[in-house]
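Render this sequence as a predicted structure.
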Amino acid sequence: MEPLEIYIADVPYDDNAGEKWRPALILTVGALETGILKITSQYADKSEEIQALYYPIQDWQAAGLKKASYIDTHKMYQIPTNVLQNKQPIGHLQTLDAVGLSRLVRQNAQHRAEERVVEE
């Protein structure tokens, strides 16, 4: 298991009311926990605020996904590493998308920092 691989994982809901099997992007791999971002095809019905946190995967077919999808960057989830160790990845995020994702995360972090300065 390596960063930027995509697996089907049991990702918890934000409200802790269960979880859902969905594609997930591997960010970090530790002995006990793996950091992931969830991948979704749901975008149009989200608010502009939420959409701003979603990275549209350009090369979704090469990444092993079945339809146009988005990486939800609002939260990195930690899941037990052992639940993915015996599974095969469904794909890998392509370089174009890895660069685009990194840009979006940096832009959003800068925007949040600027908002904090204005609030102070």
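Summary. The first helix runs from residue 48 to 51. Residues 5-119 form a domain with the SH3 type barrels. fold (CATH 2.30.30.110).
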